[in-house]
Amino acid sequence: MSRTSYDRYLTVFSPEGRLYQVEYAFKAISASGHTSIAVKGKDTSVVITQKKVPDKLLDPDTITHLFSLTPTMGCVMTGLLADARAQVERARAEAAEWRYKYGYEITPDALARRMANINQVYTQRAAMRPLGISMIIIGHDTELGPQIFKLDPAGYFVGFHATAAGQKQQEAMNHLEKKWKRLAGNITDVDAAQVGNRLGRAEVIDVAIEALSTVHSTDYKPGEVEIGIVSTSEDEDLKTRGQWRVMDKEEIDKWLLAYGEKD
Amino acid sequence: MSRTSYDRYLTVFSPEGRLYQVEYAFKAISASGHTSIAVKGKDTSVVITQKKVPDKLLDPDTITHLFSLTPTMGCVMTGLLADARAQVERARAEAAEWRYKYGYEITPDALARRMANINQVYTQRAAMRPLGISMIIIGHDTELGPQIFKLDPAGYFVGFHATAAGQKQQEAMNHLEKKWKRLAGNITDVDAAQVGNRLGRAEVIDVAIEALSTVHSTDYKPGEVEIGIVSTSEDEDLKTRGQWRVMDKEEIDKWLLAYGEKD
Amino acid sequence: MSRTSYDRYLTVFSPEGRLYQVEYAFKAISASGHTSIAVKGKDTSVVITQKKVPDKLLDPDTITHLFSLTPTMGCVMTGLLADARAQVERARAEAAEWRYKYGYEITPDALARRMANINQVYTQRAAMRPLGISMIIIGHDTELGPQIFKLDPAGYFVGFHATAAGQKQQEAMNHLEKKWKRLAGNITDVDAAQVGNRLGRAEVIDVAIEALSTVHSTDYKPGEVEIGIVSTSEDEDLKTRGQWRVMDKEEIDKWLLAYGEKD
Amino acid sequence: MSRTSYDRYLTVFSPEGRLYQVEYAFKAISASGHTSIAVKGKDTSVVITQKKVPDKLLDPDTITHLFSLTPTMGCVMTGLLADARAQVERARAEAAEWRYKYGYEITPDALARRMANINQVYTQRAAMRPLGISMIIIGHDTELGPQIFKLDPAGYFVGFHATAAGQKQQEAMNHLEKKWKRLAGNITDVDAAQVGNRLGRAEVIDVAIEALSTVHSTDYKPGEVEIGIVSTSEDEDLKTRGQWRVMDKEEIDKWLLAYGEKD
Amino acid sequence: MSRTSYDRYLTVFSPEGRLYQVEYAFKAISASGHTSIAVKGKDTSVVITQKKVPDKLLDPDTITHLFSLTPTMGCVMTGLLADARAQVERARAEAAEWRYKYGYEITPDALARRMANINQVYTQRAAMRPLGISMIIIGHDTELGPQIFKLDPAGYFVGFHATAAGQKQQEAMNHLEKKWKRLAGNITDVDAAQVGNRLGRAEVIDVAIEALSTVHSTDYKPGEVEIGIVSTSEDEDLKTRGQWRVMDKEEIDKWLLAYGEKD
Amino acid sequence: MSRTSYDRYLTVFSPEGRLYQVEYAFKAISASGHTSIAVKGKDTSVVITQKKVPDKLLDPDTITHLFSLTPTMGCVMTGLLADARAQVERARAEAAEWRYKYGYEITPDALARRMANINQVYTQRAAMRPLGISMIIIGHDTELGPQIFKLDPAGYFVGFHATAAGQKQQEAMNHLEKKWKRLAGNITDVDAAQVGNRLGRAEVIDVAIEALSTVHSTDYKPGEVEIGIVSTSEDEDLKTRGQWRVMDKEEIDKWLLAYGEKD
Amino acid sequence: MSRTSYDRYLTVFSPEGRLYQVEYAFKAISASGHTSIAVKGKDTSVVITQKKVPDKLLDPDTITHLFSLTPTMGCVMTGLLADARAQVERARAEAAEWRYKYGYEITPDALARRMANINQVYTQRAAMRPLGISMIIIGHDTELGPQIFKLDPAGYFVGFHATAAGQKQQEAMNHLEKKWKRLAGNITDVDAAQVGNRLGRAEVIDVAIEALSTVHSTDYKPGEVEIGIVSTSEDEDLKTRGQWRVMDKEEIDKWLLAYGEKD
Asked: Where is it located (chains A, B, C, D, E, F, G) (predicted)?
């Protein structure tokens, strides 16, 4: 009951030093019923997320959790979809401003930092609630290669080799860690970067599909998942190499088949 | 009781990560006592809604839930009618601004996205309550053909082959899905788009009338429903082809008769 | 008790999707102790309302519920008289602005829509309470003939053949509907517009007087009612034809007598 | 107890459609312990009010409830004296602005309407409380002759032949009505205007003194009442004819004596 | 308990029509533990107040309740001293503005009215609390002679022949009234102005000292009272005649001695 | 419990006419655990305060309660140190503005009055809390000699011959009064100014050290106290004569030794 | 329970003179689960903090608590990381502004004071909550040598020879004090500055590692701690001498080894 006193005023600490509104925003993310996975390898980063079409008459092309941010960067948004759109528009505006000001594309880490700072402001000022969204950005950094950054409503962001967000975030993270260990040969002290660097485009996609399929114990059909990819692999078509793109149904079908046949 | 703590402040999450005010706005829509249906086919999209004249001395011409947005786009508004008018005026202004800025008409999806973004803002800021309105936009996209978009107070929007809003939304959605299945020959995995593409102007209108009549178990008379249509069918009169128009009583009578005689 | 949580904040939905403040404003109207009636016919629209002079030493000329809006439009205000004056001033300003901007008089429906939109704003924003007033506008539309529009605090407005507002609104509406049925020859499915179109100036006035007299079971004296009229009938004096005017005591006396003698 | 919920927020309706703050402002008026009377006749309007000097060492010249508004208009203020002064200053400013804008003096009804509109705003917006003041304006209208208008905190105003305000308002109103009836010869249906028009300057003053004396059962001494007058009577001194003036002690003494000797 | 509802919001009436915050400000004045007396005569007005030095090491020259406002006007402030300073600065600014605008010094009544109006605003708007101060202004009016005005937190002000403020206000007022009666020869209906006009400079000072000494049953020493004076008496030194001045310790000693020897 | 109603709103009186927030700010001062003493004599004023170094690894040079305000004026701040810094910065800005505007240094009393006025504003407006700081200013006034002024959160300020602030304020004040009495030869009615004027630089410092040592029953070591001084004595080094300076450890050691040897 | 009344309004004192929100912000720091240590010596200052990688797939290069502020100054932030980033950005902006305005780098104490003042404002105004961050700045002052300043959410800042922040702040402070004592030869009255001045670059690093290892009873591995350093020692590489730098894993490994071998 004493909580009710704190959560009505966004910018106030509870006696335990907690910011309840931020914690509730996290609840909004896990309650969204979606799980998203991101994996990066030597030359490729992908995001995969469930595509739930609650209604059969809904036009599935109009519903997506994947958004492009710059030609070489995209993201998967998990949580309140209306909030997601608002955050994506802001991210695009920030990227455009950077391009205009500095004459080159913003890097994934710079964009992640900028968006995280905006989120922090929502937790300190009284004017607006925090956004109920977890944002995972993937992209290609000319110096650092494939990149994954995850931002949360608290204004916290960090890079990953592989990560997850949403309903089954914890299960997916556990699965990915075990996978990494297995890839490293079941040694105790895995060097995650080293393992990642051994993964080519196909392996990265496979790991991502496996993670989503496993935590939901589901064999997904092409229309049930969305996959976004940025790859500089030679396997990637020349004209999309290094670009953010969302796979079409045929390509997804191909990868799902490949994953299915593996077993 | 603990709810009272959250719903007084629009922009605040409850401990479960919910935004109560937005949920109450949905209640305002279903409590309005109206049902609206939208269906699209190969070349035609229609909306049908009940025309309730609570008072016999009321001038029925002055009461409507259908509004034109641009020459080729219209909408049906379900919920608080006063809020509806405010939202329609905003939508028209947005469409006019687009035309002015870019020199061509806004497309249905762009208008739907813009209006949804405005709704999202009402859920994040403290200044105004969300609007108690479900907006279904129909129109013709030169590339994509007939379009249906539904927006809700949460700032969420999505495209449909056929959809419904208001009091009997759930029943109507169920009916439409079953209808689609029947049209597809009762196979399990219906491709909604494919089924829709087989529907001509007359079929689309028939499906819409059937849906509304069925969920309310009523044989409507011409003065009891409103029908809005955008059709590029050759059956459509040349001068209204591709334009949003509201059917007059005679035309509605014709279609209701056709539907009645079918049985 | 749980209501107290909602009605202090104007712009907030209750869990049932209701806007309590708007409902309380309706109470303020019915609690005002006044009833107003409006009736339109072929070429005439009239409003009649009670003139209560609570105090015998009050100057009855200074108390009125009828207000002119433009030369050809007037209204009867039912509810909080101080709010009424504020709304009338706004309506006049809107009409004047229209005339200035477009070069011709605003039409009754345009003015009604504009005022209703202003009322809607009071229900969505926190700055002001809704006005405790029901406004019935009458006027002559060059295309559509006599017009009656009723606006309420919710921002809802609609046209009528005959309507009522205030304390005995329901009784008056019932009476008018029965009257219409009687005029149509007691058939079930009355076409209200058709019946209205058969009513000349004298009949319209008679119907209005009858309605007010019946619901209050009172034989009114000239000083006890106010009548406003806009008529293009040939019975109307040439210099006031098509103009809004408030009847003087002598004329009211004449019509009351005519009504009395009818029985 | 449930009242406490409503009266803290000025601009909010209670569930019964009442505005409590406005009602409390009326309490502030009747609790002020003062009674004021206004009477008008053929060519004269007067206000009379008690002059209470709570403290014998107070300078009685510095305490008054009578204020001039324009050369030909004045008022008596009943209620919170500090609020009265604020309202009088506003009224003078409004009158001055009118004179500046239109080139002639504001009429009593125009000033009363303007001030009432200002009061209405205090009841609709949250920024300020309503003023705890009843304002009675008297003046001479070149067309309509003597005028009395009474304004209240609700923004309501109306003209009177004779009226009262403050602690004994009800008793004074009753007394004045009976007086009017007696003047009319004890007929039932008194025409208040006709009776008023028979009253000359002396009679008007006498009626006012009688009303105040009777409701307080007091024979007032010159220093205990204040009388303001606007008269175009030939009995009025030429240089104050048609002007607002406050009687000096000698003149009040004369009229009190005249009233006393009458019995 | 029900009071707590009203006193948190400055500008709101209680159900009895009272403004609690204003009443609490009066408590702040009487709780200050100070009493001030003002007396005026034929050609002199004086204020006397206690000089309490709570701490023996305090520099008594830095603590005062007397303030000059213009060369010919001063005041004694009773209540919260920090508030007093703020009000004095405002009064000086108002006086300076008057001098600048009109070319002559503001009169005591004009300054008192202006300051009272400012206080009224604090009681009507929500932005600031009322000031916990009673202000007694004395000065010389070229037409009306010596003047005393007392202002309170409610925005009420009035002139006096003699008055008091603070802890023993009521006792002092009673004493002064009795004194006036005695000076008038113990007749019942004392004309306060007439009595006052018989008092010369010495008598005025004596009356003031007597009043303060009596209500506190104390024989004051020079360092224990402050006396401010504006006198046009011939007894007054030529270069301070008609000017506000604060007596030095020697002069106070002289007058206290004179008072003491009288008995 | 009823207190909770008042202390949340800074600018509001309690029913007893108290301003709780201001009283709580005083608590913040006494709860700071510090005591400061100020003493002035013929030609010298000093402040002494405890230097508590809660942590042995803290750099003692970075912690101080003494601040210079102008070259000839300084202060000791007792209470919340973060608030102290804010107030000192404001005081310096005010002093600089004065110098710029008038061409000479601000005097101690003018600066004290200005800062007190700023504090009063914090007690009347809702925007900021009062500062939890007691400020004692010392300096040299070319006309009045050494000066001590103490300001509190209520906006009250006054001059002293010797004073104290903080945890042991009351005990220190009592000690200083007794000391003054002893210096005066144990007579009852001590003239504090006269006693003070007999104190040379060394005596003033000795009295201050004695007061602090006595109330805390501690023999302070050089690193445990801070001493600020403004002296025009001939004992003062020529280049710091009349200037504010903070003593270094060596000098403090010298004075503590002198005090210790005295016993 | 009574606390709930105070902590919702940032700028308000509790009856005990406390500012709860500030205290809760301290809780947020200690609840962060991190400990940071800072030590300075003759020519070197270092900060060491734990590097916790909660997730094995997280990219450890993207997570840090060390930030550069100017080329010669850096800091370790302990508490809410999102708040930390906001404060660091502000600090850099302040440093840049100083450089621009004055033409030379800001000194550590000036930057610490400026940031502390900004924190104080958050505790006095209602607009924003205090930041849940403890900031320890290290740097080289050309006059004073190595510097350590610690700032807290209350706006308090102070210099140290060695200090700690976060979860084990108290234990680390105790350890460091004991260490200093041991370094001084176990004498009672340690001169912290003198001890510090005997520490060279290697000793300073060793003391810091020892402190962190001891309070957490952990032998840290290179990837588990972060070390920031500013050193003018000749042992420091010429091109980083006097510059802030963060050690790479190899260097950390070297120092951890050296510490481990010492035992």
From this structure: Cytoplasm; Nucleus
CB spacing of E124 vs D31 below 8 angstroms: no
E154 contact residues in F (CB cutoff 8 A): none
d(Cα G243, Cα C152) in Å, to the nearest integer? 73
Amino acid at D59: D
Which of F13, F180, F192 is the closest to E132 by Cβ?
F13
Q: Would you state the structure tokens that stand for residue A243, as one six-digit string?
A: 């670009």
Q: Report yes or no: B121 at the A interface, CB cutoff 8 Å.
A: yes
Q: Do C59 and D2 touch (CB under 8 A)?
A: no
Q: Rounded CA gap, D75 and D69, in Å?
A: 7
- Positive or negative, the CA dihedral A140, A141, A145, A150 is negative
pTM of this structure? 0.85
What H or E segment, with its residue span, contains residue A4?
Answer: none
DSSP result, D75-139: EEEEE-HHHHHHHHHHHHHHHHHHHHHHSSPPPHHHHHHHHHHHHHHHHHBSSBPPP-EEEEEEE
Residue pLDDT, tens place only, F86-136: 999 999 999 999 999 999 999 999 999 999 999 988 887 655 788 999 999
Residue F191, pLDDT > 60, answer yes
Q: 25-44 in D: which are within 8 Å (CB) of E?
A: 25-31
E190 contacts on D by Cβ (under 8 Å): 56
Q: Which of B117, B155, B162 sits opposite A57 (nearest CB)?
A: B162
DSSP A113-151: HHHHHHHHHHHHBSSBPPP-EEEEEEEEETTTEEEEEEE
CA angle F98, F103, F109 (to 5 degrees): 45
**C8/D contact by beta carbon, under 8 A:** yes
DSSP calls for chain D:
-GGGGTTTSTT---TTS--HHHHHHHHHHHTT--EEEEEE-SSEEEEEEE---SSTTB-GGG--SEEEEETTEEEEEEE-HHHHHHHHHHHHHHHHHHHHHHSSPPPHHHHHHHHHHHHHHHHHBSSBPPP-EEEEEEEEETTTEEEEEEE-TTS-EEEBSEEEEETTHHHHHHHHHHHHHHHTTS-SS--HHHHHHT--HHHHHHHHHHHHHHHHT----GGGEEEEEEE-STTS-GGGTTSEEEPPHHHHHHHHHHHHHH-
- Whether B18 sits inside 8 A of A25 (CB atoms) is no
Residue E15 in this model has a pLDDT that exceeds 60:
yes
Q: Which amino acid is at B170?
A: Q
* pLDDT (mean) for D212-218: 95
In the chain, the amino acid numbered G9 is Y
Nearest CA in chain F to E5: F5
> Do residues D148 and D160 touch, judged by C-beta distance below 8 A?
yes
Instruction: Measure the CA–CA gap between D40 and D229, rounded to whole angstroms.
Output: 10
Q: Other CB atoms closer than 10 Å to residue B73's CB: what's the count?
A: 28
- D120: which chain C residues are within 8 Å (Cβ-Cβ)? 82-83, 85-86
D: neighbours with 3+ CB pairs under 8 Å?
C, E
d(CA E240, CA G211): 77
Any CB–CB contact under 8 A between A129 and chain B? yes
